[in-house]
Fold this protein.
Amino acid sequence: MNKRPNALSAEAFLLEELLDVQEPNPVLEDFLQRLGAPLVRFVPYEERLDFLAQTRVHLEQSVRTYEEAGLAREAATRQALQRYGQAEEIAEEYLLTWYENESPTPLTKRVGRANLVAYGCFQTALVLYFVILQTRLFLPQATGYRIPWNLSPAEIRRLWPEPLPFPDLSLGFLVGVGYPLVAPWIAGWIAGRMIPARAARAVYHAMMPLLLLTFIVGALLLPNTEGLLFALFQVVYCLPVGMGIAHLSSLAARRKAPARVSGGTAGTHPPMRNL
């Protein structure tokens, strides 16, 4: 054991020996920055620092193991990180686990919190569309068949004997046609902002019962095929658009992070992954 000045207490000497302070490891610090950045907007500060501190301690242990095997420090660090996994994938896995366990209830444990949030977004959009359709059906607007030049349909028929499709350009018609096109974008964006990880998968799971219900209702309406056409429209357009927008929205939310996010102290809980 090295000789120390008498002024240095035994407690301080023991602490220094245990800490074994080393120079900063740039490769490890960069990994921790990329690991912590997606967590900033969602995970509380203390929990985030605790998770990063746990990761730091176990990665440093793994690096020392490879150094003792004869590797240089940088090579040992890269080997440890390669075995540990990609920072973005680990952050996404941790985010999803934290999100599902943040406010556990019997329903969220059975169905999944992310699935419930996505279902609420798209179910709300479907209910609003149903209200719009019912409004157009029972409260039609008198301005729906307005024709330019102040001519009535009878006068147009006298000048042009062939039947003409008079377009409905009322506000209710435009809303009824435009809403199904816009709704998946809005619902997907809201779901992605609320679900921190794997939002596209949650949207997929949420829309499956809605699509099944739409197909059943459409089959009951036969020989009228409008219900089945709407179900097909949801499969071809609403489902992929909603999943894509939810993924992009969640990704954009995770990337909003300050420059400094990593923690520097050790935690006391088990690591997220085995090294």
Q: What stands out?
A: Confidence is low (pLDDT under 50) at residues 1-10, 12-19, 259-275.
